[in-house]
Each structure stands twice: as structure tokens, then as C-alpha cells.
Hints:
By secondary structure, this protein is an all-alpha fold. Helices cover 80% and strands 0% of the residues.
Amino acid sequence: MEFNNVNSPIDRTESGTMAKSFLANVFTYMSAALAITGIVAYLFGNDMSLISLMYSLEGGINLFGYFVMFAPLGLVLLMSARIHKLSSTMLVALFIVFSILMGMSLSSIFLIYTGGSIFTTFFITAGTFSIMAVLGYTTKTDLTKFGSILMMGVIGIIIAMIVNMFLQSGTMDYIISGIGVLIFTGLTAYDVQKLKRIGSGVEYGTDETNKLSIMGALSLYLDFINLFLFLLRFMGDRK
Length: 239
């Protein structure tokens, strides 16, 4: 996407207004998605008849559970690949389905951690996320150069987590969690700055702009959820 040079005070004011409006839409979509995920996770995590849909009596995950686990990834790939083909209404519908499936998938944390530690970690995550979002919006430092480094870090974390599934190392798990917190804390600031720049160069009120705000919300949603899960591995009190 190309951005026009902004020279005059009037242009800068209009650009700033567009960025604020765009980010307001982004955070509205993100907040709604998090609310859906949280409600669904709580309902499933505290109702054995619901959570048993995904887990067998022996405690192992069943076929439907695997579908719930991997379907969100498929939806993210679908939304990213078909953003220019799908309408904003369809993207919203897919985002809602994604949020519900994520809530079902995350419901298992209520079986592992105490409710108090889950809620405490959530509020700490919200505070950390908010601070980094403000930093990303207000900083004059160009965070673009850090983006590729952070994304490589995400890939490294995924590989390390897969390896540790076989090693079952508690020490490695803590190291992965610590690095994960740092990576997604940084990604929050980077993504907000990137979305601010996108918002400064779009035409407000169009369907294409609305689609970009939905995808921006998805990006920040994933930052928040991953930050929350890595913090929970540090701070969560197991049952």
C-alpha cells in the first residue's frame, strides 16, 4: 500500500484523524472478539457436559477436539488469503466463528489453572497490552526493523515448543514462556504502529478499509491471546 507524503498542518491533522478512526474500529473489533472468546471459554471450562464434547472420558482429546484446536488456524489462513475476495460482512462472520472456536479451545485452561489466577493474569495482560499499544502509537521510533526480528522469534518459539513436546523439559518451558512474553509484548507495539500508518493512508468508510480494520483486529487479538497464554504459564496457579 502506498502512502502520500504529508506536508501541510491540515494534511497532518486529517491523517491523524483518519488513523484514530481506523484504530478505533480495530480495537472495537478486537474487544468484541476477546469478549466472545472469554465468555465461550468460561462457559465451556465450567460445564463438564460441554467440555466433554472435546475430551473423552479417559481425559484425551477426541476428534472434535482436534478440529476445534486446528480450525482457528485454518480460518486465519483463509481470511488472510481471501481478504480481497471476501466482503467485510463475511470477514466479520469468520472472525466471530474464529473467536468462538478459540474460546472452546482455551476452555481447557479452566481445568488446569485456578479461576483466580486466570482472571489475575488476564488483567495483567490487559495492562501490559495497553501500555505497549500506547507506546506503539506515540513513539517516533520506527519499529519496522524490529518486525522481521520478532516474526523470526515467533517461528523460533513454535519450533522450540514442538521440540519440547517430546523433551518435556520444565526448564525449557519456562525459557520459552519468558521469550514468548518478550516477543508478543514487542509485537503489540509494532503492530499498533503499523496499523496507525495504514490508517493514515486509507479512505475512511469504504468496505476495503473496513476489511483492513478487521484483519488488524485479528492481528492484535493474536498478540493479546499469545501474551496472555505465555504469562499464564508463569503466573497461573495449577489446580
